[in-house]
Automatic annotation (TrEMBL):
Native organism taxonomy: Bacteria, Pseudomonadati, Pseudomonadota, Gammaproteobacteria, Alteromonadales
rRNA processing found in the keyword field: no
Active site (UniProt): 61 (for ompdecase activity), 63 (proton donor), 63 (for ompdecase activity), 66 (for ompdecase activity)
Role this protein plays: Catalyzes the decarboxylation of orotidine 5'-monophosphate (OMP) to uridine 5'-monophosphate (UMP).
Matching InterPro entries: Aldolase_TIM, OMPdecase, OMPdecase_AS, OMPdecase_bac, OMPdeCOase_dom, RibuloseP-bd_barrel
GO biological process terms held by the UniProt record: 'de novo' pyrimidine nucleobase biosynthetic process; 'de novo' UMP biosynthetic process
Encoding gene (name): pyrF
Leading EC class: lyase
UniProt organism field: Pseudidiomarina salinarum
Entry protein name: Orotidine 5'-phosphate decarboxylase
Residue numbers binding substrate: 12, 34, 61-70, 120, 181, 190, 210-211
A Gene Ontology molecular function term of the record: orotidine-5'-phosphate decarboxylase activity
Length: 232
């Protein structure tokens, strides 16, 4: 990918007014921006459009998971906002993902369509409680296969699964990895984590980082330090 930073800052803020002070200090070369459920629910599509208009690559992280018709229409609505990437839960199944793919067919520059595999907050025990008694890596692989045959551009996974996915799907299959934690930052609710430098060394295309930047005493300095560490 030709963009300057692989970092996508997760704008997990309660509303637009809380997010803007940081956004105003950023520029599109420093990072992409991820809008998730909290901010989208309060700030809505207008906020997303504003970020797009300011030239940011926007990852709309709403993890759609519904019947095929509903997901297809939601994905189209996301594409109409001009976002760079949108995602659906791969566990929604092949017909759901194919419907999402088809829904983007007539966009000249569709957003990347990405399937969420196993959330980076989950362990084998968490999976087992949902009735899936396998290691996260195995479930990630299974869902990534389904995403690939459904025509998706890549998956959300943890950096720990990157090597096995690259070996099977090649480097054009986009890997998006949250659970990125610079050394010394708090793990919080994340479980399958890796540092930005280790993730970059694996050739992962998109590194999603939220709290280690947004909750830092100086978010700009935190982002700059990570970007700098990735250019060394
Ligand atoms: O498996 C997943 C999928 C999405 N996320 C999202 O990424 C960010 C991570 O934020 P941090 O503060 O760096 O933990 C957050 O918006 C999640 O909703 C994820 O963490 N894991």
């Amino acid at each position: 990918m030709k963009h300057k930073s692989q970092i996508f800052v997760a704008l997990d803020f309660p509303d637009a007014a809380s997010a803007w002070p940081l956004v105003r200090r950023l520029n599109p070369d420093m990072c992409g921006l991820k809008v998730g459920k909290e901010l989208f629910t309060s700030a809505g599509p207008e906020f997303v459009k504003r970020l797009v208009d300011e030239g940011f690559r926007v990852f709309l992280d709403l993890k759609f998971h519904d019947i095929p018709n509903t997901v297809a229409k939601a994905v189209r609505a996301a594409a109409e906002l001009g976002v760079w990437m949108v995602n659906v839960h791969a566990s929604g199944g092949r017909r759901m993902m194919e419907a999402a793919r088809t829904a983007l067919a007539d966009f000249p520059e569709p957003p990347l369509l990405i399937g969420v595999t196993v959330l980076t907050s989950m362990t084998a025990d968490d999976l087992a409680e949902t009735g899936i008694a396998v290691e996260p890596a195995d479930q990630v692989q299974r869902l990534a296969r389904l995403a690939a045959v459904s025509g998706l551009d890549g998956v959300v996974c943890s950096a720990w699964e990157a090597e096995q996915l690259q070996a099977e799907f090649g480097r054009d299959f986009v890997l998006v990895t949250p659970g990125i934690r610079p050394l010394g930052s708090e793990q919080g609710d994340q479980r399958r984590i890796m540092t930005p430098e280790q993730a970059q060394a694996l050739g992962i295309q998109v590194l999603v980082i939220g709290r280690p930047i947004t909750q830092a005493n100086d978010p700009m300095a935190a982002l700059q330090a990570i970007n700098h560490s990735l250019t060394l």
